[in-house]
């Protein structure tokens, strides 16, 4: 019984370190699940100024990269022009790069950088963005 309890405690502590349970992150994820991407981005940008926790900062930065990509997708559906769309995805790349700089060992920052690069490339045009494929493969 002691052994099972010890294993439970170790796994719980490991999980807490990997999956922070911040109210801010929970609220951002709730808004994201509701499809309110503009609100996610605005909320996280405000909260980012108040965090000193490196892990929470990383979690906010990649979520901003994700929300920025989603906003770009929504704007594309609304008919936003090519140049303005590419700016959304460039911004998403920038936020993913910030996440990578905050925690280079966490793969989720690389994923969202690659996802934003992919969307940027789709908007730019396949032939004009073939050089992005190599960078995306490297990220993934």
Describe the structure.
The protein has helices at residues 2-18, 23-33, 37-48, 54-77, 82-102, 107-124, 131-139. It has 140 residues and is an all-alpha fold. Mean pLDDT is 84; it is low at 1-20.
Tag the structure with descriptive keywords:
7 helices; mainly alpha; single chain
Topology:
Layout: H1 2-18, H2 23-33, H3 37-48, H4 54-77, H5 82-102, H6 107-124, H7 131-139
Q: What shape does the CA trace take?
A: globular
* SSE arrangement, N to C: HHHHHHH
Helix segment tally: 7
Mean pLDDT across every amino acid position: 84
Distance from first to last alpha carbon: 42 Å
- Count of β-strands: 0
**Per DSSP, what share of the residues sits in E-state strands of 2 or more residues?**
under 5%
Structural class: mainly alpha
Which residue ranges are poorly predicted, with pLDDT under 50 across at least 5 consecutive positions?
Answer: 1-20
Residues in helices, as a percent range: over 70%
Largest beta sheet, briefly?
none
Question: What Rg, in angstroms, do the CA atoms define?
Answer: 17 Å
Give a short synopsis of this structure:
This protein has 140 residues and is mainly α.
